[in-house]
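Supplementary Methods S3. Input chains for the assembly prediction are listed below.
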Amino acid sequence: MDPAHPEHIFFSPARIRAIAGNTLLELVRLKVFYFLLIFGFLLIGLGAVTPEFNFQEQFQLLKDVSLGAMSIFTWLLAVLATAMLLPKDIEDRTLYTILAKPIPRFEYLLGKLLGVLLLILISTLVMSAVFAIALYGRQQLAISETIRTSAGASADQIQDAIRDIRASTFTYSLIAAVVIIYVKAALFAALTLFISTFASSWIFTIIVTFACYFIGSLQGIAREVWLGSVSTGPLPRIFLAIIALIFPDLQLFNLVDDIVAGNSISMLLFGKTVALGGLYTCIYFLVAYFVFTGKEL
Amino acid sequence: MTAISIQNLTKVYPIPFRRERIIAVRNLSLDVEPGQVYGLLGPNGSGKSTTMKIVLGLVSPSAGTTRIFGRDSHEVESREEVGFLPENPYFYKFLTGQETLDFYGKICGIRGAKLRERTAELLALVGLEQARDRRLAGYSKGMLQRIGLAQALIQQPRLLVLDEPTAGVDPAGSREIRDLILDFKKRGITVLLCSHLLSQVQEICDRIGILHKGVLVREGRLEDLISIENQTEIILENATPELLAQVNALLTNSGARILAERKPQTTLEDFFLEVTSSKN
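Predicted structure tokens for the full assembly:
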């Protein structure tokens, strides 16, 4: 090796880790975790307004509100946190000082995305823990209430009642729901990153991402309506095919609603949904990289 | 091997939705030798920043090549040898001085004890040891420039690219940065400097190039470019009025013409620093 030219590593996980760690630190010091307090207050407030419901209804409501709030919060966090990352670095010229170092643009962009994904993961885990504690508390209350009101019932009957309570609180499907919520947020983080590589401002990025959300949510319905009609010509079909290719069908992520409703979902369907989310996340990231590589700073 | 080699460089920016285009740099060729302090001068919009960005690989040239110590500057590896301080840099304000250097060190592949040693050494060099644990949001303009210089030096580059390093800095801070650049020169580090402070450029640069509308209009050793060939400056100390009268008579008889006769002056910067430092 020429001593004048230090050895350069073409792909360095350590460099990516440095960017990801710094991105996470930036978001943490921006106090984005404050929204977790809102989530906590929401669950505490829920306990105050539902004492007249039976325990089954309470569990249902708690799952419905908690998973719905987790879905919204992680999605918002993914979009809002990612939208400002690139424009802020460009505007503050911090990007110049970073890319003037021996770090490829691929690693910089991947580090940024991983930092956001890490933030979403921590938030999802914290919210899941809060949710699990709240659910466990309700379960214990329901069990003690059952024991108290079952005077005269046989031990087997009480055990059956307790088993019923336990079966209707924690299920494996809840874990699947949390994973799907995370995957959807990750997909939107990658999409937002892609849009921010060519957007002129972070507001524009957020508006376009919201538009993508609506397109992704409505495309399933549009497909059913248009393709269900015999008279639909080839042009709308091609248009729908392009839309379906560019935007993921977000209705697929509505599996969470089925889980909350108590329906069991197959492992295959769960696996397909996660794989689709992962695939779109990778595709959006790669397209973002190609746009960012050609970007003149 | 030259530190920077720019050959027939042209950069054209198309204007979106119009058929017009802007030629930011036109057929530029220049070399910067190792150990030199090279001043790239020019009015706003003359192509200085574009040239710097191309040298750093942040922008692609439309034609021509730029090389850093023999490596095409478009290759990421070439940046192993370069440190860059942009004009008015805003580093991550949420980081402390120490964390800033740690971050830049890590993306250059330095870690562990070596990184700790290097950051301590650089914080001492730029005089920010006391402010190492303070967040950059609380740094003054001069301190930000100095931490910027420290991050530029983190991987011990052989070339420093500095864009207006003293912009917005008070005279004392400006002098400190100038002294640091002179120190880099002593250590054999090549410096490419863009500045509007011509007096400072004159003090520290070995060679300059002047860009105007993307074209290199003058280039060469500073002394050669600014000396007036047919004039000679003599500065006398303790000269009596009689001696001056004799010198004047001699000069008049020889056919030479006295263009000006005045007391030598200190610079305003030196005067300012003398006054303010004595107050402290």
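Confidence is low (pLDDT under 50) at residues 1-6 of chain A. Residues 40 and 130 of chain A are 7 Å apart (CA to CA).
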